[in-house]
Request: fold
Amino acid sequence: MSALTQHGPRIAVVGGGIGGLAAAGFLRRAGLTATVYEQAPEVAEVGAGLIVAPNAVRMLRRLDVMDRFLRGAVPLEWGWEFRRWANGDVLSVEQLSGRCEELYGERTYAVHRADLLATVRSAVPDEWIRLGARCTKVEQDSDRAVLHFADGSRSEADIVIGADGIHSAVREAVAEPGPPEYSGLCVFRAIVPAEAAPAFTLRPAQTLWIGPGRHFVHYPLAGGKAVNIFAAAPAGEYAEESWTATATAEEFLAEYAGWDSRVTDLIAAADGAPMRQALFDRAPLRQWSRGRVTLLGDAAHSMFPFFAQGAAQSIEDAAVLARCLAEGGDAPEQALARYAAARIGRTTRLQEVSRARKNVNHLADGPEQQARDVSLADADPLLASGWIYGYDAEAVLDA
Reply:
């Protein structure tokens, strides 16, 4: 398995998901070339919907893929519309339309994961991608890195980027593996065709119902042709951390028995078996890079999805990493260290606030819940998220 004839350093990107392909796209934009090694036989994305906030949209615009992105994206008019679980009372809402662009220069969108993957894929030449290549180990010395693959083949590179997710094989070349911590939660994901969805759920809004021990999110996808469901609930004995495991519709409905009928009606309308995935927490890494090897996206900073920033942070990583390598000349180790230094603080903060949201969203009815609801009503959530949405990943490097 040989790498391409490349300009500049031989860069290997392990993982052809959103983060890995974004890295390849930004490397190309910076005048570098890379080989993307993806274990699957085709570039495809499982899962359901994503929220793409201004901090990520800003980077996609610079990658010159906005035309492709807007084919399936839904611009949201309201975001983080918090509602009470029992009756749908609105506790707080972001007015996005007009105000989001005014504050942060970009809109907020809902998009299917597959459409976002296709967007970043459009920035990467076909010949850069090697399919069916499952990397099992990375070794390095002072002169090169060697990637080992499941079929027994090997490939050499000057720089290796591990974008291979929460079960990263590359991470072992960078950091001591630590055991994941079971969160006690699982998440359900499902898609509802627009023709089967209650009209209320077709509004261009990201709606978040919060209640005792669980929460429930929905928003439109695919140009309004479908509604995405994301829900977090107690996991019980369930501990499968898989993107392909499923539950029954009855199991999903049982978790939200007694909730507002708009929630249960939407669950009942879901198309096919809902996905179900146990959530595990991982402590923030203090070191992302070692020698010629670095990490990106979930391989570096997997986070609970409660701030909807996982994919966005992968895209930010990709933009910063490409800039650091392009400006690093013949000193890749220093370039990778600069990249990690620019990113670790921000992603660690997002990991921490995402973890804390688990408790805030799931308060039992009572004094704490009432105080939370008052604080939500008193806040301006769009301004409060300025440190997330207003962030310009490349401008940090310029500063």
In short: The chain has 14 helices and 18 strands.
